[in-house]
Structure formats: structure tokens, C-alpha cells
Amino acid sequence: MPPHMAMTVKQLMHWYERYLAPVAFFAGFMLDAFTLTRVDVAWENIILVGHLCIAAAGILLINALEANRLPAWISERFAPLFPLMVQFSFGALFSGFTVLYFRSGSLTASWLFLLILAAFLIGNEFLRERYRHLAFHGSIYFLVLFAYLIFAVAVAMREVGPRPFLVAGLGALGLIALLMTALWRIAPARFHENRAKFFAGVASVYAAFNILYFTNEIPPIPLSLKHAGIYHSAAYEGAALRTTYEAPPWYRFWQETNSTFNWQPGEPVYAVSAVFAPAAIQADIVHHWLFYDASAGDWVERGRYSYAIVGGRSDGYRGFSFKQAIEPGRWRVDIRTGRGELLGRVRFTIVTAGGAIPLSAREL
Question: Distance (Å, rounded) from C-alpha 41 to C-alpha 45?
Fold first, then answer.
């Protein structure tokens, strides 16, 4: 390759890292936030699988380069691009996973797992040189592979719960074993030198995922809460769920219903939620009603009410529970899966109404 062309590649990469990378990082994350909406959409899965393939190709090329297994013309022209391939695809995957997992669960319950994803997303921008190390990029690849298969296997099996999670873990182990085999064939000396750290990294990621899942720290993807609020009435009329509610003040535009509930003694209070699930998936949703006992300084459960959902509706399968044994004070309704994973939470305060309350109507 002519020297002036090699210099052009280096200058281009320097310009990218200094000026374009921060813009590309922000633009890519915002693009994922608006375009990655459903885990069961074929095109979105094609994009994620494509990035998994690009990252795997980059890892194989990096190790083939280090083992001097590539033709000279490829090494001279494209060697600086191999770590960039891995960094680019890992960044896209961590960005997509952060968006999808954040939409699936409650930050209150899943903050640790979401923080880990966000840390890798941000740290990815500074790790291009680290991606030259076999044990490091191999462990990170297993992490993104496992994170993808958690929801992909659930969608494919049309089931949520521990069984698809365990299948996802076995699938991730099988695929990383294939990558290890390819690395062993391409760069045997380099693989043997780093295999202990590689195995330790994979084992650590596998153990961490299982601990986080069975302690309900991983959001219950592919389920996601689309709507939740507190209502004065809720009733099905055919396919429609008709409700009445108190509209929040204009400056609380993020709230779907008012957090202050003006209650008439004897009136029931309704909690309504809409939970999305991919087509053909069935799951149990549980409303946990809790009252804050000021004397004890703690939340006390006042009832659990469950309903089954069937996937496929883009706005979520709607269901509600209601409670008549009510008293003024601070309340909350936790919306959980059948195995206790927190999808979302509605907090509200019940006060005794001083007169007629203007109500709005909504069809869900």
C-alpha cells in the first residue's frame, strides 16, 4: 500500500476518534431509543444479530492479525479497522440492550443490571485498545451474546420464566464455545496463552447473569409495561376498556393519572395496567397493593390481585384490579410478573374528597 494512503487511513481514524465518535455515540443511542421498540420485530433482531456477527468477525481478524495469519496487504491496509469493528458493534449492542431492558423493567428493581449495561455502553467509547486482548473481548462478547439470547429465546419459545432463561444461557455457552474453537484454530499459541483468563471471564459473566436473574435484578424482558394508573372506574365494554380518572395538573405532563386521588368513602379504587408481550406469549400479572403505615415506618401489603395476559397487542394487554377496603394516606401498586419481577409502580395519595370531583374519560 502506498505510504500516503496508509497515512490517510490513520488520519481518518484520528479525526473520527477526536471529533466524530462522541457525536456518533449520542446519535446512535438516540436512534436506538426511537427505533428499537419491540423485541419480536424481525428487522430489529436482524440488526442485533448483524452486530453480533460483525463483532465476532472483528475478534477473529484481530487474533488472526496477532498470529500473523493474514495476507500482508490486508494487514497493512485494514489492521487499524479491526478493533474499530468490534468497538462499533459492541457500542450498538450495548446501546440497544440498554434501551430495550430499560423499557422492560422498573429502574427501582433493576437499577443494578441497567447500571452495568450503561457502564459498558459509556466505557465502550474508551476501550478500543483493550479490544486487542483476547480474554477481554471474548468475555465482553459472551456478555452481549447472553444479553441478546435472554429475550430472543423467550420470543422463540413463546414463554417467559426460568426455562427460556436457562436455555439462553446454554445457547450462549454453546456459541461462545464455537468462537473459542475458531480462535484456537486461527491463533493456537495466543489462545492457549489466554485461555485461563478467557474461561474465567466467561464463567464470571455466566454466574453474574444467573445471580441477577434469580434475584429479579434483570428486567422481565420481553414483557414491558405500556401503561399504569389509578382510576375511579374501569369496565370492559366489548373489546374496549372504559375508564374514568382525575387528570394530572398540566405541569405533571409525565403522569398518566393524578397522583392525588380524591376519594368518596365507600368508593372502590381501580389500578389499571397494560403490559406488552410478544404474540402467543402468556403470562400472569400481579397487582400488589401496599399502604404506608406511618407508625411502623414501612409499607404494608393490603392485597394481591392477578390476571393473565396474552401477547400480541402493541399497546399492551389491559387488565385491572380494584380495592374497596380503602383509607386515606399514601398508597402504591406494584405491577409484577407471576415470579415477582417488578414491571412498574404507581404511587398515589388518597384524600377524602370535599365535594364533586371533575373526572375525565378514557378508552384503553
Answer: 7
- Alpha carbons within 13 angstroms on the beta-carbon side of residue 84 total 12
Rounded Cα–Cα distance for residues 216 and 310 (Å): 22
For residues 317 and 309, is the Cβ–Cβ distance under 8 A? yes
What's the pTM value of the predicted model, to 2 decimals?
Answer: 0.84
Euclidean distance between CA atoms 292 and 296, whole angstroms: 8
Indicate if the pLDDT at residue 199 is higher than 70: yes
In three-state form (DSSP H/G/I as H, E/B as E, the rest C), the secondary structure along the chain is: CCHHHHHHHHHHHHHHHHHHHHHHHHHHHHHHHHHCCCCCCHHHHHHHHHHHHHHHHHHHHHHHHHCCCCCHHHHHHHCCHHHHHHHHHHHHHHHHHHHHHHHHCCHHHHHHHHHHHHHHHHHHHHCCCHHHCHHHHHHHHHHHHHHHHHHHHHHHHCCCCHHHHHHHHHHHHHHHHHHHHHHHHHCHHHHHHHHHHHHHHHHHHHHHHHHHHHCCCCCCCCCEEEEEEEECEEEEECCEEEEEECCCCCCCCCCCCCCEEEECCCCCEEEEEEEECCCCCEEEEEEEEEEEECCCCEEEEEEEEEEEEECCCCCCEEEEEEECCCCCEEEEEEEEECCCCEEEEEEEEEEECCCCCCCEEEEC
- Give me the domains of the chain, ranges plus CATH numbers: 3-214 (no CATH), 224-363 (2.60.40.1930)
Does the pLDDT at position 2 exceed 50? no
**Strand pairing of 224-231 and 298-310?**
unpaired
Greater pLDDT, 119 or 158: 158
Q: For 54-72, what is the mean pLDDT?
A: 89
pLDDT tens-digit series, residues 263-283: 999 999 999 999 999 988 989
Q: How far apart are CA 228 and CA 256, in angstroms?
A: 7
Is 90 exceeded by the pLDDT of residue 119?
no
User: Is the C-alpha dihedral spanning 33, 166, 310, 317 positive or negative?
Assistant: negative
